[in-house]
Amino acid sequence: MDQQYATYVKVSPLQLGVAFVVVFVVGFLLGNQITVIQAQTSPSSETSLLAPVRQAYDIIQRDYIAEVDDDVLIDGALSGMIAALDDLYSGYLNRDANQRFSQSLSGDMEGIGATIRTVPETGEIEVVNTLPETPAREAGVQAGDIFYAVDGEDVQGFDQMELLPLVRGPAGTPVTITFLRGDDLVDITIVRARFEVPSVDYELLDGDIAYVYLLDFSARSRRQLDEAFETLDVNNRAGLVLDLRGNPGGLLSSAVEVTSAFVEEGVILYELFGDGTERIFEADGSYFGLDVPIVLLVDQTSASASELLAGALQDNGLATVVGDVTFGKGTVQVINQLSNGGGLRLTIAEWLTPNRNSIEAVGIQPDIAVPITEDFDFERDGDIQLQAAIDLLLIADGVQAAEASAP
Amino acid sequence: MDYKQTTAILFRRVRVALFVALIFAAGYGFGTAGQAADAQSRIRLPDGAEALFDPLFEAFNMINREYIEPVPPEELIDGAIRGMMLALDDPYSNYVNAEYFPFIGGDLEGSIEGIGVIINEMEEGGRVQILTVLPDTPAERSGLQVGDIFYAVEGENVEGLTNLELAARVRGPAGTSVALTILRGDDLIDFDVRRERIEVPNVEHELLDDDIAYISMAQFTTLSRQQVEQALADLSVNSRRGLIFDLRGNSGGYLSAAVDIAALFIEEGTILIEEFAEDRVDTFKIIEDQAYRIDENGNQRLYSTRATYAGVNVPVVVLVDERSASAAELVTGAWQDNNAVTVIGVPTFGKGTVQTQRQLVNGGGVRLTIARWLTPAGRSISGEGVLPDVVVAMPEEDEIEAETGADVQLQAAIDFLLADNLIEQSAD
Prior knowledge:
Structural class of chain B: alpha+beta
Number of helices of chain A: 12
Strand order of the largest sheet of chain A: 11-12-13-17-18-21
CATH superfamily of the largest domain in chain B: 2-enoyl-CoA Hydratase, Chain A, domain 1
Oligomer: heterodimer
CATH topology of the largest domain in chain B: 2-enoyl-CoA Hydratase, Chain A, domain 1
Radius of gyration of chain B: 23 Å
Number of strands of chain B: 20
CATH class of the largest domain in chain B: Alpha Beta
Number of domains of chain B: 3
Number of helices of chain B: 9
Number of strands of chain A: 21
Structural class of chain A: alpha/beta
Largest sheet of chain B: 6 strands, antiparallel
Largest interface: A-B, 60 and 64 residues
CATH superfamily of the largest domain in chain A: 2-enoyl-CoA Hydratase, Chain A, domain 1
Number of domains of chain A: 3
Distance between the termini of chain A: 55 Å
Strand content of chain B: 25-35%
Distance between the termini of chain B: 48 Å
Order of helices and strands of chain B: HHHEEEEHEEHEEEEEHEHEEEEHEEEEH
Shape of chain A: globular
Strand content of chain A: 25-35%
């Protein structure tokens, strides 16, 4: 997953204030949540299959050199079972992690308001940005700060899923984080708060172009997108740039809602399950009625739901896709609730674009490729992808204007 | 575990101890022999444990029903047990699945069925190479050489495999053959090697210049005591000026073997104190043998000598290094506390715990830390290791001529015994 973050800091349209709020939900496309599957249905064959696990448990609890909490062993067994799938997108969330993960998808969050990423070279977790009007920003957390300890617990070597339960917590409770800033260790005590995570940021660009930046696909994304379109009065502009760079995905339901703003009717995606069955998602009838040229901006960190949106619009000829080849995550996960309060995140399906293309490991090919090369320097060169999108819309507008004025 | 990955340089240096403990073994398997495979009859879940396991049934069912592709159930079970063991956060407690479990501990029984090479994982490149070709084995007769790198086994690329995984593929019943593709220099060479029963070399001895007896031991196996007794007899040790007992690179072995060996050099006294968790000492059968006595004291067990003293009455030097671990540290600590020997070398590895090994009903097995042990004086060596009486470190690689391979630790031991002799002679 690290590579998703490799470039987006550099590539960001930094002029726009709030940059990349990767709300800790990374590259998931979450389908419907399924509740507990009853255990008493387990036939005796499964009981005997699990017998060695019980045996190992029994040996540990009888003979191990120290007392061990039952939950620690069961959590470990569940993590190990899921790890055996060798699937980046399947995993076990213990009770705490599960609660916080569910909350993050609601679009609200209780926490400190910092966006994090894993530094690919070192494996350290660093602050990418802080959200405005959040405790993190007010307490002086800075981009580039590296998580070193949380409430005195050393978190070096933690992955994001391990770090998050420590950082997040109920509004009103304090957390002391030790950051590595340059060569210094800085202790910052932050009182957590509840805040709505913005999914959308927007701006009217020169050339009368509406620019909307979609950060993720949460339960609030569609509403915030509609508000942005209305505020920008988008249908009276020369064009729309919808920026999906750095957007790691989110809820499948949100992806369908957002895509339905652009697609009046017809297929949005096909979902293919492991047993060979297929589910068809069509536009839900909430078409926004956009009638200006649309450019989608994508890059290698546009993943999952972002790719779903780009694929649907591309296949329907509704937008021009500009930028870099996208991440290539063509699978759907669910979170199943377990009876111990934990959650099982499981890859259950592959999805196909309306033209029945799989994007897994391939990504969406842009209609106009504007790749970010290794020698690219944002400071020097500016946001060349955004500029390409603007140029395209201005040319289209010029052509339209010329046609309109032609005798 | 790096300490096991002896480099070729180091190997050349320790010239006399030619069989650095890498006999396919996973290292310091160390516990009580004879306790395995009894677990099936002893599953007894406490009240409420059914609910405890519900999430595992649920997850198992969900994966089987919903996951995007079929998964062999054994892989899920292996994963669950592996995860449960990992949750203990103890490097010495782990799970080995049914494919590899048969190869754990076989070395400690003194022989294996295979081709007769000692292997190690190369520090770079995820390759396994041949460290030693044992004499008079199928490997030697087929022309395998030191430095050969395993490229493929039965046509399957073996890059990235661990020692244990490679051993599992190379070993097999005596009389069967294995097809190996070996990378030698830039060439790929195919070998077809017929497997045999191989005696794992362990205790070796020789008479050094200056009339000094030398014994080295790679592991503590069920045969170790008998082999050491034989070596002592062959060397006529009491008619020599001294004995060097080389435990460098010895990664451990069976607890019972360690106690046996320790008792050979202690006329009367305590060998070790084994300490269990509170209320858990009862679950282990006491296995006594003729070599030692066990007394229970709360959650401790005291192991003492029982008249198997070998009667060595010349000075003894024990050589240890940073790879001397577990059982090797136990005997060294016992001898040190009983003033039976002089310890020369560098501080040892520092593993002061005891594991047991249990086979599970699926054919896999767990290795579990069940106790810690203390030296007779009540010292814990965990982390710090046994400190030598005389510290002699091997020089850094760039300080010596690798080819001459001067063994300064061995030389220090020899010098010590010769000086000791002089003192005794002048005192007479």
